[in-house]
Amino acid sequence: MWRAAGRPAAGGKGRVGAGVAQVVTGIVLLLVVVALTTVGGLVHRSRDGRVRAAKPAKPGTRAVTLTDELRALGEGETRLLAFAQDRDVTIGSARATAARTQRIVAGRGVVIVEGEEENTLSLAIAPRGGRGPLVVDVPRLTGWMPRFPVAAEGDFGLRHEARLDGADTTLRLAWVRPMRLETPLWDAGLGAPAAIAWRGTNLEAELRRLPGGPGTLERLSELLARTAADTPGRPILANIVRDMAEIRRLLDLARGAVREAVVADAALTRARAAGEDRTGAERDEARRALNRASQTAERTAATADTAWRVWLDAVQELLTRTG
User: Fold this and answer.
1) Other CB atoms closer than 10 Å to residue 236's CB: what's the count?
2) Which residue pairs from 257-261 have beta carbons closer than 8 angstroms and sit at least 24 positions apart in sequence?
3) Does an H or E element contain 178, and which?
4) CA 48 from chain center: how many Å?
5) pLDDT for 97-109, tens place per residue?
6) pTM
7) How far apart are CA 70 and CA 73, in angstroms?
């Protein structure tokens, strides 16, 4: 059975196939074929060894150049052919994927994007003047719905029909499937933000997991930039990006305050150790240094507590608005 039909064969009584596309595990395998299905579909091996249609479809058009792998066809012989390769027809292929956002919603601590993904196979066909129907068979893609007219389904997969007018053309066959992406505003493994304390936490090591840490704000900003202005839920995302930017600023302030508190606490520890080794006047000076270090540690710890609390309040407010 022929799988692709194109311009008339010799004498106008046959059909010449133009192309078959097959997708195998993401790799596009293109077969350019012809099908001569009636008595008019005669091929002839010339003295140069090439196998061609016995004569052009009509005066002024080229003869179809076919595969020369017909070993049993001797020079000067003519034979009826049902299926062969037209070497003059060329097909190029390319795949492209795209995601379209259709709606944005906010959950507690998460941004949810709903839309669809599109997987497109483009076939650039150069028929070299060939005209007529074209049939393209492609396998089904599990989980994807074809967005092109399907003429038939079967063991061959999905069959799409088009028509060639002799000029170069590009067929685009697209499949779509629903898309749902969730972007957490922070690592839920940390637990409730209110329970996070700066004391005993390695902030720099855990920074990417924290609300306002690097990564999340950037991803949300990119999503906002590529979302159309009229997309439902875009204002919600814009507000979240604005709030996350403020949370980032407050987190940076809290980190700076925590660093000062950690440095001051380390200085207090050294001052205590120094006071234990001194006697006389040196001991008195060590006690005064210890007192200054203690006051600095208390002050910087209080500043860190305040900055941390301001940051947590902003996080909690965002949770309230999105939850």
Assistant:
1) 15
2) 257/300, 257/303, 257/304, 257/306, 257/307, 257/308, 258/198, 258/203, 258/304, 258/307, 258/308, 260/300, 260/303, 260/304, 261/198, 261/297, 261/300, 261/301, 261/303, 261/304
3) strand 169-184
4) 50
5) 999 999 999 988 8
6) 0.63
7) 6
